[in-house]
Write a structure and sequence with these properties.
single chain, about 170 residues
């Protein structure tokens, strides 16, 4: 991929773009991280990013089984051990998928699962502590670091017709 892929705030997402562009025109399965409003913002950033790099995707389910497919799992903070079942998509698919990419995430749990993952898996950390944790537990999976996908969202990408922080501030 030629050149950097910068987000609207100047954050560099090139490493994620290069990882995803290796799949060419093949459709991937995107499984957003279910959860709270922060997870929704991260998913929005991911959709905007996918549009920017021309990634073809369809939505998948966290409890889905996708053998032979390329999976992209949404970023967030679910893999800390605090959310039972947050590892379901990884557990169900990492052995049979064609490739698996975990978008920038916080990971502090599931060391046995991480050790099982192989070179078909690329796991992105969103902070240095997670990068260190992943590097300590992943013997074959690729580990990389990038900004949280929420940083791919700005006021323009949300759209003034849906939400305008200046109008909300003026009401207060």
């Amino acid at each position: 991929m030629a050149g950097s892929v910068l987000g609207p705030h100047g954050h560099d997402f090139t490493v994620v773009a290069e990882c995803l562009k290796q799949f060419g025109d093949e459709e991937v399965i995107f499984i957003p991280n279910p959860g709270n409003a922060g997870d929704a913002l991260i998913a929005l950033g991911s959709y905007l990013f996918f549009d920017r790099i021309g990634l073809r995707f369809r939505l998948g389910e966290p409890d889905g089984f996708y053998p032979g497919r390329i999976l992209v799992l949404g970023g967030g903070g679910a893999l800390t051990g605090a959310y039972p079942g947050a590892d379901a998509a990884l557990q169900r698919n990492h052995r049979t998928c064609k490739a698996l990419v975990l978008l920038p995430h916080t990971v502090r749990a599931y060391p046995d699962l991480l050790a099982e993952m192989d070179e078909r898996c690329t796991l992105f950390s969103r902070e240095l502590g997670t990068r260190d944790y992943l590097e300590g537990h992943c013997s074959r999976a690729r580990v990389a670091h990038c900004h949280d996908m929420a940083f791919y969202v700005d006021e323009r990408s949300i759209g003034a017709e849906f939400w305008n922080p200046r109008q909300l501030a003026d009401r207060g």
